[in-house]
Amino acid sequence: MQEISKGANVSLTALSEDAGAVVVSLGWTSATGAGDADVSVLLLDENGKIRSENDFYFYNHPAAADGSVQLLGKTPTANGDEDRISVDLTAVPEDVARIVVAASQYGGARFGDLDDLRMTVSDRTGEPLVGYSIEDAGVETAFIFGELYRRGEEWKFRAVGQGYETGLTGLATDFGIDVLEDTEPASATEAVPAAVPAPPQEGGEAAVPAAAPTPTPTPAAATDSGAAAAPEAAAAAAAASAAVPAQTRGRASRTTRKKVTLPKVAKKSLAENDTWRTARLFPVPSLKSDREREVRATSVLLSVMAQVPELGRRLTAGFGAPAGRMQTFTEVPLPHGDTPKRPDGVIRVERAGKLWTALVETKTHGNPLKDEQVQQYMDIAARRGYEAVITLSNDVALDGSPVVDVKIDGRRKHKVSLWHLSWAEVAHQAQMLIRHEGVGNAAHAWLLQELLEYLQHENSGCHGFQNMGPAWVPVRKGIEDETISPDDERAVDVVESWERLIRQVCLRLGGELGQKALPVQRTRRDSDPRARRVAAAAALCADGKLSAELRIDGTSSVIAVIADLRTGKVRTAVDIPAPEGSYPLATTKRLLRALAEAPADLHVQTLVEGENGPRGTLERLRPEPGDLLPRDGAAPGGFRLSLIKGMGNTRGNTESGFIRGVDAAVDRFYHGVVAHLGAFEARGGRRG
User: Fold this and answer.
1) CA geometry: angle at 439 spanning 435 and 442, to 5°?
2) Nearest-CA neighbor of 25 among 165, 174, 133, 136?
3) Segment 608-636, tens digit of pLDDT
């Protein structure tokens, strides 16, 4: 990969023979785990302006109808977040001269608060071509990381690194977007600007989209124009229209087509009693063997991917697949020496006469992927010109830790990418679509619901990460007996399994809430994952504890999860700051009122500078909030809230398992505690 500096440019075709489509990655880390930014992409004409509002892509307008731009969303990395964007340069309209890639922050956050700001451009196989690091970020609240631009028949990349202290408003104004701000926000949160693009050059009417990033997007609305808007969208459009200056009123307001989501509350059943089973499109009770499970699971998933474009696109876009017509196949015989091989599935996507193809190898019921088998499929794919091999199993992939060990023949001209999906990720994406973001029609929503029902059935074998591995029992016994050595390699295996578990917990919780939930890694992006796990393994052997942190979008808190293998307890905790300038007793009373619905066994501890203060259970403190005040009159700096729960003793494949115990502990803590802190934190933020 070629590294360039600010202002430098390079030809993409000079770096790769396959630069017709690229994946642009923006990455950053945060020492606190709370840093975040929203990515946006602008298509500009020769004059450096957008042609219409459809040339502005952001979290609520993530994809171009022609497939040229697709925002793939955030991916947790070993040390932070990475936002990826798929750009099909062959599909970019000819009158687009530049593609600007930017990011912005909200709520007063600055890019100087983030570390390791970086932009990378990779080809469609995932091979990094060029990278650029921003090292001079300061007070800027928006940044143009870089741009792709035409020079004759080729595309080039330029490292821009231009920042704006005026946020998205300043950035958007430079490219022909008039940003209008509400003068009277309806709440205490920051006013959300509404962007009005300049009129199209050929007599078209300008539209009024809601273009500024907000912490929580509105998932129910799509970006199609021409259909009737949802009532909520209509209300928002009316509010935006009221804020538009007189000279801009009269322009056609942008309409949105409401996407279909399924209600969380099931309809009343017409069954005579609870023993009646609802008819399912994908029945599973008859599945007996692992082979039956794999064949059925592959066919069910691939068929729904082909019929529901939103799901098919979401599961393959990150692997370099274009947006196009998708067909899927199962049990395809392919020549390989004397004995043909039958991969579990094949995915083919056609766009503009070009074909993208991937082989699929599936495992269910906790069965591991086989290195030799995947290696054979990699060789077949390379010989037949396929772009990718996708493995799918209950295992969860980690950065810097491959699920299978294969060798890539560097002498081959054609490169094949190896990707991995977990069944937990598939279920997460299906749940995000049918519960929060919506799909094109009711039939697609119903298909996704049937898929989710199938994946969650106990006989499907598609339950995600469910076993801590062969090292779990001896390591746990060694910790209890205090006989395990700090350099025992089995402890590293347990730490790696712990990381997989935490990532799966984030997937499940994020799918339920409709918000991103990500593990927090308090290390720099360039740190070695192996070294981090070795250090965590040494700590595990010393104190018998596995620890992790996770963050959920829409909350300012970081949830700590600590599994003490010696006591058999899981502790979930969160620290919240006390508002500045408030009376200590009033603060404690307000906190206890916010926790009125929290579990009675919740532990509350006052934090004072340099030491821990008074503590007690919520049950004891409710009638006596003054017991939380330090006796020496010191003002509370914050509070630590924690719940303690017993954990299972088995590897994790039973109801009392360790994995289920950790997942249940996080779920109980979020819904019982963190979800109720919004009012307290919001009031504290205004005072601070």
Assistant:
1) 90
2) 133
3) 876 778 999 999 998 998 998 888 878 88
Beta-strand relationship, 388-393 and 417-422: parallel
User: What's the rounded Cα separation, in Å, for the pair 663 and 530?
Assistant: 25
Look at residue 269 in the predicted model and tell me its pLDDT: 77
Mean pLDDT over residues 351-366, rounded?
A: 90
CA distance 103 to 26: 9
On average, the pLDDT of the chain sits at: 80
Report d(CA 469, CA 490) in Å as an integer: 10
**What mean pLDDT comes out for the span 412-424?**
84
Cβ atoms 3, 92 nearer than 8 A: no
Residues 6 or more apart whose Cβ sits within 8 Å of residue 671: none
Q: 């004397």: which residue's tokens?
A: 338
Q: Distance between CA atoms of 644 and 618, rounded to whole angstroms?
A: 13
Quickly state the pLDDT bin for 82 (edges 50, 70, 90).
confident
The Cα–Cα gap between 212 and 141 comes to 13
> What is the C-alpha to C-alpha distance for residues 147 and 157, in angstroms, rounded to an integer?
6
Residues in the chain, how many?
A: 688
CA angle 635, 641, 643 (to 5 degrees): 155
At 496, list the tokens. 């790696």
Q: Are 571 and 587 in contact (CB under 8 A)?
A: no
Query: How far is CA 252 from each of CA 109, 206, 208, 342, 437, rounded to the nearest angstrom?
Result: 34, 6, 8, 55, 26
Q: Bigger pLDDT: 268 or 428?
A: 428
Residue-wise pLDDT for 461-501, tens only, equals 898 888 888 899 999 999 988 899 888 999 999 999 999 99
> How far, in Å, are 308, 493, 536, 562, 650 from residue 566 at the CA level?
48, 18, 16, 12, 14
Query: Which alpha helices (H) appear in 335-441, and where do they start and end?
Result: 371-384, 423-432
**Is 489 buried (19+), middle (13-18) or exposed (0-12) by CB count in 10 A?**
exposed
Q: Span 579-590, mean pLDDT?
A: 84
Q: Which amino acid is present at 38?
A: D
Instruction: Extract the tokens encoding 26.
Output: 């923006």
The whole-angstrom distance between residue 385's C-alpha and the CA centroid of its chain comes to: 31
Distances (CA, A) of 69 to 57, 185, 201: 8, 33, 22
Identify whether the C-beta of residue 181 lies closer than 8 Å to the C-beta of residue 171: no
Q: How far is CA 463 from CA 35, 150, 263, 655, in A?
A: 31, 47, 23, 13
Q: Higher-confidence residue: 395 or 338?
A: 395
361 — pLDDT class (breaks 50, 70, 90) = very high
CA distance readout (Å), 160 to 2, 73, 566: 16, 22, 53
Nearest to 602 by CA among 619, 583, 581, 590: 619
Interatomic CA distance for residues 156 and 163, integer angstroms: 21
- Residue 329, SS3 per DSSP: strand
In DSSP terms, 21 is beta-bridged to 88
Helices 658-672 + 489-513 axis angle, to 10? 40
pTM of the model: 0.64
Residue corresponding to tokens 């018998």: 544
The whole-number average pLDDT for the span 42-53 is 90
Most confident of 80-89, 294-303, 318-327, 351-360: 294-303
Strand pairing class (558-564; 177-180): unpaired
Helix orientation angle between 290-307 and 442-456, rounded to the nearest 10 degrees: 160
Longest dimension (CA), the chain: 83
* 8 A C-beta contact, residue 545 and residue 480: no
Q: How sure is the predictor about 253, in pLDDT bands with cuts at 50, 70 and 90?
A: very low
Measure the CA–CA gap between 365 and 393, rounded to whole angstroms.
Answer: 8
CB 70 within 8 A of CB 320: no
